[in-house]
C-alpha cells in the first residue's frame, strides 16, 4: 500500500452522526485524505472543532479540529476526488445531485437515490458487481457526465441481513422466502433521535419506513443487473426467482449494533443442513476484500459457536464493525433455517459501507484521479 | 361478591419473585385470604418481613409482615383450601407432589408438571376447558385422591402468544404455522437472575429452554382434550390440524413485559383480512371473565390502533397486567398476518394466571371447601 | 369530604409532560373538576385524545378524551376557579400574567415568577405560611386584583431537599451549610427532553441552571416572610441565619425519581445525633396534611431503615409520589449529618405540589368561589 | 524499548473480571509476557479458552487461548518474575501470602493487604514513593525475604479521587476536608455482580464497605512515609495535616467508569482560584510517566473545558482508561472548590494500576530478574 497515491475527499453533513463517523474512520485512512468538510450554513465558517457537538468515544482527530467548515456547494469541494455524504434525507436529494453534476463522485449514505433505476445500491460485501451500471448512469444523465456519479449504500438494517443472504444464495441457490425481526439500536435514529423517555426500559415495535426499506432494498441488492432488449441495464429485483420478504422492526435500548432474527426458506429441496449453512457463511468472502479494499473485513461473516452469541455489546466492534456476525444457526420448524445476525449499524451499516465502496471504485479505476 | 365465602390459601416459595407477586395480588383479593407462607428452611421461623428481600414497588402488605414463614410441608398448610406454588423448578417437583398427596389443590407456576399427561396446562384466558381432566388426574393417582390435584399455568412467553392465537382459531379455524420472535424482560429470569453486565446496552439472543417451551406448550394449550378408545382423556397436542411453531427468544433490557413479534398462516383460504383479525381479537372473551373470576380482565385482548404500540413500559400495567395487548396487525408477505403482542410476564405470565385458575376452580366447584 | 363543593379547574400546557400529570391526578380528584384544557394554537380545536401524544402509564382518563383543547386565553377559562400551569418557561410569563389579570388563581409549575418578590414559592409540605403574601401581591398589582394571583411551586430537585431541611430546622434550629449532589431522572427534562444517545450507559454531570435554582430557591422557601418598616412583607432569603448551599447536579439513566445525597451542618453545637435526626424527620408533619388537603401525604418524610434505600424504582410511587423518602442518616466527617433523599420529580416535584397548594388555598378560603 | 528485556508474568484469578482485564492488557505489553494463568481448582487443567466465560469486547488473545490454567500454587509459577493478582478477597489473603513466601513479586488488586503496615498501597499516578517500604517489608517478614513482596493498588473509587487530590496538594499544599459523592459503574461489582433487576432504571445509594475504603485508603495514599525513632518507616495517614474525608457511594446504571462529585477545602487561605486549580490539574505529571512506564498516561489528569464533561460513556476510554478526567472546576459555596472526576474503574481503577506499578518496579530495579 506504500506507493498507493492519495485521494482528497470531502464529507457532506460532517457535523452529523454519520459525518462524525466518516471523519473518525477517514482520519486514519491509508489513501483517503480529508480535504473539505461541508455542513449547514449555520456551521459554515467555523473551525470544525467549534461547529460540531462531537459525540464519538474517540477525541476529534487533530487533522480536522481547525479545518473550517464549508457550505455544501460543489465549488468548495472541487479539489476533491470523492465526496462522502452523511446528509439528512431532507437536503440530500438536491445537494448530492449538484455534486454529481459538478462531476464529483458521490458516495452517499442517504436514502434519496436508493430507488433510482440508474443508481446502484451497493453493500460492498455483497454486490460490487452493480458498479457496472455507473457508465450508463453517466451516459443517460442530462447533460452526460464524465466523472460524476452517485453510489448509495443500504439502510443499516438491510445491510445486516443481505450479507448472510448473499452468502447463502451463492452457496445454495435462490432463497424463496425470508422472515426478519429486527432489534435496532438507538444510534440508528441519529441525534438527537430517539428520546430517552421513549426507549429506557422499553421497546418501540415500529420504525417509520424501515420495514419497507428492508423488503425493497434487499431485492435490489440481491437481484441481478440484466441487459434488456433496449441495450440498457436494469435491476431485476430478484424477479427471476421471486423472493418474499417480511420484516418486523423494533427499536430497543441498545446503543450500537442491530440484532436480527432471520429465518429463510430455500428454493432447493432438500434444503442445506445447519452445518452446511454455517460453513457457507464462514467461507463467504467479498470481492472488496479479495481485491484489497483496506476497510473490507477479513471475516465477512463471523460465525459464532457459543449458543448465546452474537450480542451487540460484545461483538459489534469486532473488525471495527466492518463485518457481520451470525450465530444460532439451526433448523426452523416453519421455514428451513433460522439464525441471528448482528451488524454494526454505524460501521458496516453506514459510513464503513460508503468508504469500502469508494475504495473499491478507486482500486477498479471507476473514480478518475 | 359480598356473600362470597372466603378461602384460606397458602403460598409456596413465598420469598421468591413469583411468591412476592402472589402476596401482593392476594393481599387484596375478594375471597382468598393468605393464611400460610412457605419457603426454604433458611427462612422458616422468621416473620415474613424479616425473611424476604422485598423487591416490589408497593410496600409489603401489613397482613403478611408478621406472618411466620413455614417450611414447605403439607402439615403446616392443612387449613388451606388452596396452595399457590412459586417454587423453583429444582424443588417444585417433590414439594408439589407432597401437597397433592396431602389432598391440597395446587396451582403451580413451576414447569415441572406441565408435560404430565394428566395435569392440565391452563392459561385461564384460553383453555379453562382443560380443567375437565382433573377427575381423571385424581382417579388415576396412586393412591386415588379426593381433593388434591395439580394445575399448572404456562411459561410467561407462551402465555403472551397463545391468547391471540386462541382468539384467532376461535374466529377463523385452525392456524397452520406460526413464527414468533420474543423480546423478553429481565424479570422473567427471576432474582438475582440476569446479571446487569450481561444485559445493559445489550441483547442476549438466547434463553435456555425457552423456545422449546413455547413450541411445545402452545400445542398442549391450543389442542383438544379427547376421549380415547380406552375411555381416558388425552391432550391431542393440536394434532388434528398440525400446527408448526418456530420461536426465537431474546432477552432485552426491559424490566417487565414480554414483547413478541408473531406471524401466522391460517389453514383457511383465503385468510382473514387484517381488519377481520383486529375485530376477532378485540371481541375475544374468556370464559374466566364471563363466569365472574374477579382477576380476569374485561379486555382479554386489547387491540391498539396507534402504529407504535403496544410498548412494555406504557402498556404492561393496563388492567393490572391481566390481559394481553396486541398492535400492528397487518399482512405478512411470507405467512398471512403479522402483529405484535405484549404480555406482562409477572402478571398474566405468572402469578395472575395461577390466581385466575384458582378463582375459576372455586367458582366451578372444582375446589372443595 | 362528601359535602365538599366542587371547583372547576383549567390546565394550561395540557398536552405537555406536566400537563399530562395534572390531568392524570385531577381526573380522580375529590373536589377539583377538569373543565378546560389549554395548549398551543397547533393543538387548539382538537379533542384532547387527538391533540396529545399521551405518555403516561395509565390510559387517558375518559373525562378528557373528547374535551376540545383551547388556546391559552383567559376568556376560554372564565368559568374556572383555578388554573394549573404546566406551561414551558418560554411562554409561561405572558400567559400566566394574562390569567392573573383576568382574576384567575394561577398555580404554576413554571419557573418564571419564582423569583418575583410578591409571588410565593411554595412547597406545600414546607412553607404554606408564605400564602400570606397573596393579599399584598393583589394590592400592589397594577391594577389591584380581587381574586387573581400567582403561586409557584419549586423546581423538582429543590423540592426534594427542602422538605427534610425544613423538618430539621423545625426540630433543631437553623442549618448553616448544606452540600447536595443530585442524581436526576430523565423525566425532569420534559419530552422529547434528554436524547437517549446522551444518557444510556452514561451520566451527564451538568443540568443547565439547576444548581443555581437549588441554591436560590431553597433560601426563599426556608426563609421567613418578614414585615418591613414600610409595612410590606418581604422574603428574607434565610438571611437572619445565613445558609450556604452548594449543589452539584447530574442527569442519570433513571426514568422517574430524583435521588440526592445531602450533608448538613447545624448552627447548634453539639449537633443532633443521627437517631435524633431520624426521629425528627419521621415525626415531621405538614400543615397541608393537618388541615386536610386530600393530596397531602400522611408520611411527609418516610425514613427507611434498610441500609440501601431509598431507591427510585422501588420507592418513587409510595403515597403516589406525594411524600419524600430519606435513608442512610449517618454522621458526616466534614459537616454534621448526611443522608439520601428521594423525591418523585413528576409528583411532589411538579404537579402534585401545585395541586396541594390549590387544595390548601381552597380549604383556607384564599381562592374565592 | 527495543532492547528492554522480557519478563514472564503470571495472573492469579485469571478467569475473573479483573483477570480478564489483566490478560487483555498484558497480551500486548512491550516487556511483560504472559507465562502462567491461575484460577480455582474447577478451572485448573483446562485450556484458558474453555475455562473462561470471556466477557471482554475484544476477542480472547490467541496467546492465552490454549494456555492450560493452573491452580494458584507457587510451584506452577516459579518461572515468573511477577505475579498479578485479580483474586477475590475471600481467597486472596492466603494465596498472595504463599506467593510472597515463595519469593515472588505480587502486584495485587485485592483489598486484603491494603491496610497492612508494611505493604504499600500504591496508585501509580500518585505515590510511587511508597515503594521505599519494600525492603522493610522483606526484612521484617518471618522468614526474611530476598525477592518476594506484595504491593497493592487502591479501590477503584479511591483511585479516581486521589489523583486530582494529589495534584492539588502538590500545587497548593494540604487539603483540609473533602466531600465525595460517587456514581459507580456496575462493572465495579464484578461478575455476576449487580443483578439487572436491582439497577435498571434505578440507583442504589449504598455499596458495602466502599465509603470506608475511600475515607481510609485516601489517607494512606496521600500521607507520608516517615522514619520513626525506632528506625522503622511508617505510613503517617496524613496526620501531620489532618484531612477529613466524607464519602457517599452510589451504584448507577453505567457499565464502566466511576463518576465522582468532589468538593475540597484547602488549608491555605485564600484558596486557589478555579483557574489555578485547572492549571495545576492539567500540569500534574506522574513519576511513573516520567521514568517511562509504558502504560502510564501522558495526560495524568485531562481537564475538560466543556461544561457537561467528563461523561463515562464518552471519556472512559481516553488513553485506554489509564488517566483521570476532571471537569466543571468551579467554586463551592460551602468548601472552596468543587469539580467532577471520571476514572475508568476497570482500567486505572484496577488492572492498569497493578501493571504500571509492576512496570515501575521493573524500571527501578525493585523486581529482581
From TrEMBL, chains A, B, C, D:
It is an enzyme of class 1 (oxidoreductase). InterPro entries: ASADH-related (IPR051823), Asp-semialdehyde_DH_CS (IPR000319), Asp_semi-ald_DH_pep-lack (IPR005676), NAD(P)-bd_dom_sf (IPR036291), Semialdehyde_DH_NAD-bd (IPR000534), Semialdhyde_DH_dimer_dom (IPR012280). It catalyses: L-aspartate 4-semialdehyde + phosphate + NADP(+) = 4-phospho-L-aspartate + NADPH + H(+). SMART domains: Semialdhyde_dh (SM00859). Keywords: Amino-acid biosynthesis, Methionine biosynthesis, NADP, Oxidoreductase, Threonine biosynthesis. Residues 8-134 form the Semialdehyde dehydrogenase NAD-binding domain. This is Aspartate-semialdehyde dehydrogenase. It holds the Pfam family Semialdhyde_dh. Belongs to the aspartate-semialdehyde dehydrogenase family. Its EC number is 1.2.1.11. Gene3D superfamilies: Dihydrodipicolinate Reductase, domain 2, NAD(P)-binding Rossmann-like Domain.
